[in-house]
Design brief:
Blueprint (H helix, E strand, L loop, with lengths): L4 E8 L7 E7 L6 E10 L2 H8 L8 E2 L4 E8 L10 E4 L9 H4 L8 H8 L9 E3 L2 E5 L9 E5 L3 E3 L6 H21 L8 E4 L3 H13 L4 E5 L2 H9 L4 E4 L5 H9 L2 E6 L4 H9 L1 E9 L13 H6 L3 E4 L7 H13 L9 E6 L3 H9 L5 E5 L1
Helix pairs in contact: 4-5, 4-10
């Protein structure tokens, strides 16, 4: 297509195969769309679910959904300025459906369009290689030098927020912090447990510390991650390798009113559920395979009035909550720099996911 721009991108062509770095053609932005030059992209476990086939996607597809960059071009009807720094969000917002009007845009009806077509709002793609169309992951596909996204998938980034921070804030941080600030209630001075000390779990630790949860307990298998959790505000840590997690949590608190489960496996969710006090709530933020099922004891669910709630994107309204997160970061209240792990160029994307699989602490970042 006339006006197409070349961009290097990480393409998933077959489930279970390494990503390939390819030069693709990127069509110019259409109505309501923007072209963004990527400055940083976070290495998130959710992309791995697509790479392994746990979650379905149309192939070939450019992966990556946690990014930030600079607006280079805008389509008709877009008010963003060239040169504006933005973070990218992986849920659109039409502004008209029931979810958007109710202030819950992460459940926008067009999320289904993105998932079903792996395209943009109109269901088509802007990426191709000759006549071969390449799909978009979650409407973002930021493991690339440049992307075209819906303008509604962008949030302005204020001066003073580095690209790496803006990138991880747009997924891991807003999910973890949001799970505490939006899904949990009245946590100040009350026990809260975070199960899993990956990027999302550690963000939840920071959110719980800001909200004043005490004691603040973190469970994980990795001593390095538990140490990082303590640096971020955890008052107690539990090494899950030693077993008896629920008993050890009960010894500390008698049971917790809130658990943020950031792993997404049935076994860890069951254990997290067992840690709840009567009338406690398990907030599930970790993703799993589409056929994964959680079984819980019905008697315990009913007689102890325990609850389980899902919190997609931390129940956040990204445009509002990301602005709040950036403000807390700039005020020194959220030490997000401590979340950053290995920094690699885009061509080392497969090595970055090897780091993730090996349990490297912190959030890895790709820099195209």
């Amino acid at each position: 297509m006339t006006g197409a721009t070349l961009t290097a991108a990480a393409v998933l062509r077959a489930v279970g195969e390494p990503l390939t770095i390819e030069d693709l053609e990127l069509d110019p932005p259409g109505p309501g769309e923007v072209q963004v030059r990527i400055e940083a992209a976070g290495v998130c476990h959710s992309d791995l679910h697509y790479m392994t086939g746990d979650l379905p996607a149309r192939l070939p597809i450019v992966v990556g959904h946690e990014g930030a960059g600079i607006v280079e071009a805008v389509g008709p009807g877009v008010e963003l300025a060239i040169g504006q720094r933005v973070a990218l969000t992986w849920r659109p917002r039409c502004g008209e459906c029931d979810a958007c009007v109710a202030g819950n845009p992460v459940l926008c009806r067009f999320g289904r369009v993105f998932a079903a077509t792996n395209g943009l709002f109109d269901g088509t793609t802007r990426l191709h290689r000759g006549e071969e169309r390449i799909h978009h992951l979650m409407g973002v596909s930021c493991f690339a030098e440049r992307v075209v996204v819906s303008a509604t998938s962008t949030v302005p980034v204020p001066d003073g927020v580095p690209p790496e921070i803006a990138a991880i804030a747009a997924c891991a941080v807003v999910t973890g912090v949001g799970a505490v600030l939006n899904a949990a209630a009245s946590v100040a001075g009350r026990p809260l447990l975070v199960y899993g000390a990956g990027g999302v779990g550690l963000a939840a630790v920071m959110g719980a510390a800001v909200a004043g949860a005490s004691p603040l307990i973190v469970v994980d298998l990795d001593p390095e991650k538990l140490e990082l959790a303590r640096r971020l505000g955890a008052t107690h840590t539990v090494d899950a390798r030693e077993g008896g997690v629920a008993d050890r949590v009960a010894a500390l608190t008698g049971g917790v009113p809130w658990v943020i489960e950031a792993v997404g496996r049935p076994d860890t969710m069951r254990e997290a559920f067992a840690c709840l006090a009567p009338a406690g709530t398990l907030v599930a933020v970790g993703l799993s395979a589409t056929d994964a099922v959680l079984e819980v004891p019905i008697t315990e669910l009913v007689q102890r009035q325990k609850r389980i709630v899902g919190a997609l994107y931390g129940l956040a309204n990204p445009r509002l909550d990301l602005a709040r997160i950036f403000a807390l970061y700039l005020a020194g209240r959220l030490p997000l720099d401590l979340l950053l792990g290995t920094r690699r160029p885009l061509v080392e994307v497969n090595e970055a996911y090897a780091d993730l699989r090996a349990g490297a602490p912190g959030r890895g970042v790709l820099v195209p």
